[in-house]
Amino acid sequence: xxxxxxxxxxxIAEAALAVLDADGPGALSMRAVAARLGMGTMSLYRYxxxxxxxxxxIVERVLEPVDTTVPDGDWKQQLLALSERVRRAVAxxxxxxxxxxxHRQSSPSLLRWSESVLGxxxxxxxxxxxxVVAMRAVLAHLLGALELEHRAPLAGEGxxxxxxxxxxxxxxxxxxxxxxAAVPSPEEFRLGxxxxxxxxxxxxxxxxxxx
Amino acid sequence: xxxxxxxxxxxIAEAALAVLDADGPGALSMRAVAARLGMGTMSLYRYxxxxxxxxxxIVERVLEPVDTTVPDGDWKQQLLALSERVRRAVAxxxxxxxxxxxHRQSSPSLLRWSESVLGxxxxxxxxxxxxVVAMRAVLAHLLGALELEHRAPLAGEGxxxxxxxxxxxxxxxxxxxxxxAAVPSPEEFRLGxxxxxxxxxxxxxxxxxxx
DNA sequence: CAATGTAGGCGTATGCCGTACGCTGTCAAG
DNA sequence: CTTGACAGCGTACGGCATACGCCTACATTG
Lengths: 211, 211
Description:
Chain A is an all-alpha fold. Chain A is built from ten helices and no strands. The longest helix of chain A has 26 residues.
């Protein structure tokens, strides 16, 4: 017989994400989110245990749109496409990148995604320790690539600063930074991921021989 | 003719890192660091512009011990060894991992390290866009692997939780998580990095053909 | 040795933050 | 129509980074 809730978790997540998208990570606060929902600050705590749980809601809202069904193609195309989907979902909310990395473990969507990736790796012939290593390598590369793409883009400030480094101390770094500005992010991602795929190819072949 | 400074930047960095190592990221504050130095809080501001600059000092203190001279061996062994050195330096201060990722761009030591890595890649035959992609792939993998190793270790809580996931929804994830506990971190790092090296091998070969 | 003025050291205060606590009013069930 | 569980929220607390301005130590200069 209690009074009914007036908000869904999804509405909370949307409001928080809206604050984050509009005003940046520094502006994300319980006060700001509550204000955007038209509530008092403390009312938000009827819906969320604490700030960390609010962040989890945001992350799930970011990752939920990821299609986790296994796409067509050979296993390499499948892995690339699955990873590309995560990349796209995250790219829609660049301000949420650090949160996404921090709370990925609590996201049901990312669990489903991981299960799909493992399905692809298993179908490719990997099991046991090799499968563990492959899965973690895919995760590591994806996490690192997202971090680089959004916090240190090839076309960004950091690259420009490196390009301006003294050539006597950092000849290669300066030259490479100048080349870097011409590589678009999606291409960087695809090419980088294909390096990993080539490595996985070797792993699959060696496990096929020994297994 | 002014009064002389009583502290060096290095002493500041050591104090801050000591706080971080001892009491965790949540305990790192201007107050705590100043207290450890035996000063009033505001005195710290005579030495650093703001908290962000304090964090940069910490990061440089973490990365400074990295030997950036190019080791012996073929280019793959060289890349692995260079990356392993960063991994070891960072592993000495696990609480500093997020800071290290965040402020890596400002670290002179990491710039020197990058120059060395580029030297190895260049000697292996890479230039232009291929070199850009290779460098960033190494960085991405390293960043991601550090994040995974320290915030989601294979032997840790998260893995245990995944191993306990319902087998009807996440059969592969649960099984893989059980296998994962048996893979030690150093081995995970080496095997994962070798996947990338195998991929780079292909890139080197293809650039050799086309160049 | 005395005067000087730069800059070190720091007390105070402001405005953020997350959140504990307890009140008030609503509204569905009985 | 009563009722009590709970939504909503005002207030308050402790901690944070940090702006500002005071006092004073001390290397330099005369």
